[in-house]
Amino acid sequence: MLRDFRAEKITLLHAVERGYATRADLEKAVRSGALAAEAGTNKSRFLKVADLEKLFGKPRGDIYGMHWGDPEHLAPLAFIKNHYLLPLIEKEFTGVEIGPGGGRWTQYLKKMKRLYVVDFYQEMFAEFSRHFTAANIIPIKNNGSDFPGIGDEEVDFLFSFGVFVHFELPLIESYLRNMQRVLKHGAKLLIHYSDKRKIMAALNPGFGVNDPDTMRELVTNCGYSVVQEDTTTMWHSSIIIFMRP
Ligand SMILES: C[S@@+](CC[C@H](N)C(=O)[O-])C[C@H]1O[C@@H](n2cnc3c(N)ncnc32)[C@H](O)[C@@H]1O
């Protein structure tokens, strides 16, 4: 998926979707010779991403993950951001994001004093650093469900979106147990997970087998208290906010 997204050349229509420029402006640049275009099948035209960046810079749509929805514009994501995520973040916090991908949500989390971005796939960090490099953002390559390099009881807030939706219960449980070590007492967590009771998850073989009752029980059995749940905003998944007592 990442390989497709990060292709060297994309079609002119993809370039419009990613927000480099309007179709009219791209056509104009091609006509004037400022932008080289290569003919593809069905009258498509391929443009080099490097050329697009040189002319138009890096748009938000170049952040890997925006093709699943931009939290600034897609209503359910904007709701989750404004209603749940932003009120949970404080500048003085140390935070963790599990599975940042290209940084679609990191853009909101990075205002914390320190943010650990934890991912299992090293290649994801190369993609991530296209848009996000800062002294307060610390990438950590983990072994699947652990937090190497993060201190005991160091973390005030933990966030993960678009990641646990793909996990099966044993991996979720392993993460929930390993998180205990790094979380402060009173630390809050917001996790987005698969809800197979919803048709769009049931039809998606890439989504893990989970639902709100199962997730709530798992979270509680792992020693956390549930703060709030949203089982309606997302069409294939749900949100749970909980805390380490
Ligand atoms: C579908 S992407 C979501 C990216 C981003 N959170 C977003 O919403 O745009 C899944 C991310 O989870 C990461 N990932 C997959 N398995 C993981 C694991 N066991 N632990 C941490 N990250 C993992 C992937 O490398 C990728 O960054």
Give a structural overview.
With 245 residues, this protein is of the alpha/beta class. It has 2 domains: 56 residues, no CATH class; 176 residues, Vaccinia Virus protein VP39 (Rossmann fold). Helices cover 33% and strands 23% of the residues. The protein is built from 10 helices and 10 strands. The strands form 2 sheets. Strands 6-5-4-7-8-10-9 form a 7-stranded mixed beta sheet, with helices on both faces. A 3-stranded antiparallel beta sheet has the order 1-3-2. The model has no long low-confidence stretch (mean pLDDT 97). The structure holds S-adenosylmethionine. S-adenosylmethionine (SAM) binds next to strand 5.
Task: Give structural attributes.
three-stranded antiparallel sheet, seven-stranded mixed sheet, alpha/beta, 2 domains, binds S-adenosylmethionine, 245 residues, Rossmann fold
Report the sheet-strand fraction.
15-25%
Q: Report the helical percentage.
A: 25-40%
CATH class of the largest domain: Alpha Beta
CATH topology type of the largest domain: Rossmann fold
Q: Catalogue the ligands.
A: S-adenosylmethionine
The CATH H-level superfamily of the largest domain is Vaccinia Virus protein VP39
How many helices? The count is 10
Draw up the topology in text.
Layout: H1 2-5, E1 9-11, H2 12-18, H3 23-32, E2 37-39, E3 45-48, H4 49-56, H5 75-88, E4 94-98, H6 106-109, E5 114-119, H7 122-128, E6 137-141, E7 155-160, H8 169-182, E8 183-194, H9 199-202, H10 212-221, E9 225-230, E10 237-243
Parallel strand pairs: 4-5, 4-7, 5-6, 7-8
Antiparallel strand pairs: 1-3, 2-3, 8-10, 9-10
